[in-house]
Write a structure and sequence with these properties.
binds fe (ii) ion; 2 strands; 235 residues; Ferritin
Length: 235
């Protein structure tokens, strides 16, 4: 569950249910609660992986500024986003250090790698649109997973719950930013069609990944075969 910020007249803030958060995200496949239970039971591994995710999204945002230096809005937004992700990284690292848990290094993330492989360089404006929509999917799934885990962990681990309650809304803001920046490049209808392809492809991936305590899942099911053309209903 995600906490809404408390107003002075409402000290008891009602939680935002996972289903409510999910409905506002561009995701077609909800993460099962069993994933959050596994992650909660393996917090050292989850947090080590989480730290790497924050580090990598900061680097990715900066890479966008490098690809498109002629786009001042993108450069400014990407730099600000990267700075924010570095703060997220530092918060996760601080918790790991305090608990004596090891910080993870680079590792395979088949979910992110399969998504990123959909980006074809040199086909502007589509390459730029896809780079931004890839970022949107990363942020949206992160928001969803943090919300899912928060629901399970909020009564078990207040420190990690507080972290996730802060980061979930931030990642939601980030997917919206990436999506909005993509929307400057093509008309609304073309953007909707393109984004739908990303949403469906990501849902296929999320369904095919085995449950593991990593942020985005890590183990590919043996029978999984990616197919961007497959269609899935919401939920
Ligand atoms: Fe983040
Ligand atoms: Fe983010």
């Amino acid at each position: 569950m995600m906490r809404r910020s408390a107003g002075p007249e409402s000290p008891l803030t009602p939680p935002t249910a996972f289903e409510e958060v999910f409905a506002a995200l561009p995701l077609l496949h909800p993460t099962p609660r069993s994933w959050a239970e596994l992650a909660a039971a393996n917090l050292p591994e989850f947090l080590a992986d989480h730290a790497v995710c924050e580090q990598q999204v900061a680097v990715y945002a900066l890479s966008l500024a490098g690809y498109y230096p002629e786009d001042p809005e993108l450069v400014d937004r990407a730099a600000a986003l990267a700075a924010e992700e570095v703060q997220h990284f530092r918060r996760v690292v601080a918790i790991l250090r305090k608990r004596g848990w090891p910080l993870g290094g680079r590792r395979k993330n088949p979910w992110a790698q399969a998504l990123r492989a959909q980006i074809v360089p040199g086909r502007e404006p589509w390459t730029k649109v896809d780079r931004l929509l890839f970022g949107a999917m990363i942020e949206a799934r992160s928001c969803e997973r943090f919300t899912r885990l928060l629901e399970v962990i909020e009564n078990q681990d207040p420190e990690v719950a507080h972290l996730l309650a802060d980061l979930g809304p931030a990642e939601r803001r980030h997917w919206e930013l990436f999506h909005r920046l993509a929307g400057r490049e093509i008309d609304a209808k073309a953007l909707a069609v393109r984004f739908q392809r990303w949403r469906e492809f990501e849902a296929d991936l999320a369904r095919g990944l085995g449950i593991s305590p990593a942020v985005h899942g890590r183990n590919l099911a043996p029978s999984w075969c990616p197919s961007p053309s497959r269609r899935h209903a919401r939920g």
